[in-house]
Design a protein that fits this description.
Blueprint: H1 2-11, E1 16-21, H2 32-44, E2 48-54, H3 58-68, E3 73-79, H4 87-96, E4 99-103, H5 115-123, H6 128-138, E5 142-143, H7 150-157, H8 166-173
Parallel strand pairs: 1-2, 2-3, 3-4, 4-5
Helix pairs in contact: 2-3, 5-6
Length: 192
């Protein structure tokens, strides 16, 4: 709560649009009841309009739903990219009506050198990064792409207009190899 109050004050707003728990607390150091009810309280107090989680497994999401009851979780921000398509979690989220936000969508630039991604990009007069972002959005995910270069940020926005074919999507589906990038041993849960 103190951190969120400070953020709202620094931003000069009445409330932030969305507040997430970044990682579930490892080994239960902080009980989920504590941080999830704090999120719900922040929402009830009007400090945040919506709440979400990040890096939650299927079991973590089930537990969060039990704790929060009717308080909606609007997103689970998780690593999803062509090499880690996280299918079990994606299927669970779809069945539960839970939105996913994809991070590491460009696999720290690895998609730029992938032959399948480059071939699809050539067919669409696009970049492999645009293809990866368009693929994630075609799955229904929001995407977070990061870059320190303005021209890359501008280029990434063009993914919004890129329509991949069913064949393109099927080709990208074959790239899944369970390659997880964000897996810090001190924080990472037992992934699905």
């Amino acid at each position: 709560m103190p951190s969120l109050r400070k953020s709202v004050e620094k931003l000069g707003v009445d409330a932030v649009d969305l507040t997430l728990i970044h990682w579930p607390a490892p080994q239960g150091e902080v009980k989920p009841e504590e941080y999830l009810t704090a999120l719900a309280q922040a929402r009830d107090l009007g400090l945040t309009k919506q709440i979400g989680v990040s890096n939650f497994t299927i079991q973590g999401l089930k537990q969060a739903r039990e704790i929060l009851g009717d308080v909606p979780i609007v997103t689970n921000q998780v690593e999803i990219h062509p090499y880690l398509q996280n299918r079990a979690l994606v299927d669970f989220a779809k069945n539960e009506g839970l939105h996913l936000t994809s991070y590491m969508t460009l696999v720290v630039g690895k998609v730029m050198n992938d032959e399948v991604m480059k071939d699809i990009a050539r067919q669409h007069q696009a970049t492999p990064a645009q293809v990866a972002l368009a693929w994630a959005m075609a799955q229904g995910h929001s995407v977070i792409s990061s870059s320190t270069r303005r021209e890359n940020l501008e280029s990434n926005l063009k993914a919004l207009d890129l329509q991949l074919s069913e064949e393109d999507i099927a080709r990208i589906a074959t790239l899944d190899r369970g390659e997880r990038i964000a897996n810090p041993p001190q924080l990472a849960p037992d992934w699905d």
